[in-house]
Amino acid sequence: MQEDRDVLERRLSREDLLKLAAATGGAGLLAGRTGIADAARAHFAAESGRLQVLDWAGYGNDGGQAMFAAYVKKYPKNKPQFTYMTNEADALAKIHAGLKPDIFRPYVGWTKYFATSGLVQPWDPKLISNFKYLNPFMVKAGQYNGKQYGIPEDWGLDAILYRSDKVKPKAKSFSLLFDERYKGKIAWYDDITMIQIAGLYLGFKNCWNQTDAQLK
């Protein structure tokens, strides 16, 4: 218990202490170190403001609110406030610039980059009541160095866009991206997913774990 108090006090900045003193009327601080720790725990355990969410445009207002239904029901006056990101690099830049979202939703392939950035904290799965019901494969994908940085919330599929007046696919397939008829007129985005799609097209048994020879 003493160790917990010491750690908590070290985490409190002078600004935090002043806010805490104002919130508690100074009573907790007058009680000494034990009072500081106890008052801090009680103060920070309470919801103190709107949930700050960094998310993709459209997710917050186009069905995304269902993700926060339980939160909104519990804290009706603190509905999530959304800041939108165009991609993961944009999200990383926003956080580097000082944005402090409570949660954000990056693609799982960026887990390592955010984990090593020093700008995010890992989750404590023990605090998530339904964690044991989540897909184990997806849960593992959100881990880095044994810590859980990403919690699987949703998944989706990519699709191909093409001009129907110019392009005539031979099949409804990603093979269109490799069609020699349109060589030099096909655009991919710079992401590891495209390597996986290439593996699928080439018939690799495990396109998510390719050998060096397959990658070549």
**Major sheet: arrangement of strands:** 2-1-3
State the total count of DSSP E strands: 5
Rounded average pLDDT: 80
Characterize the biggest β-sheet.
Answer: 3 strands, parallel
Multimerization status: single chain
Give me the secondary-structure category: mainly alpha
Question: How far is it from the N-terminal to the C-terminal residue, by CA?
Answer: 56 Å
Shape: globular
What portion of residues belong to β-strands? 5-15%
Briefly summarize what is shown:
This protein has 216 residues and is mainly alpha-helical.
Secondary structure blueprint with pairings:
Layout: H1 2-11, H2 14-24, H3 27-30, H4 33-45, E1 52-56, H5 69-74, E2 81-85, H6 88-96, E3 103-104, H7 111-115, H8 136-141, E4 143-144, E5 147-148, H9 193-201, H10 212-215
Parallel strand pairs: 1-2, 1-3
Antiparallel strand pairs: 4-5
Protein traits:
216 residues, mainly alpha, two-stranded antiparallel sheet, disordered N terminus
Description:
With 216 residues, the protein is mainly alpha-helical. Helices cover 36% and strands 7% of the residues. It contains ten helices and five strands. The protein has helices at residues 2-11, 14-24, 27-30, 33-45, 69-74, 88-96, 111-115, 136-141, 193-201, 212-215, and strands at residues 52-56, 81-85, 103-104, 143-144, 147-148. The strands form two sheets. The chain has a three-stranded parallel beta sheet. Strand 4 and strand 5 (147-148) form a beta hairpin. Helix 1 crosses helix 4. It is globular, with a radius of gyration of 23 Å. The termini are far apart. 8% of the residues are buried.
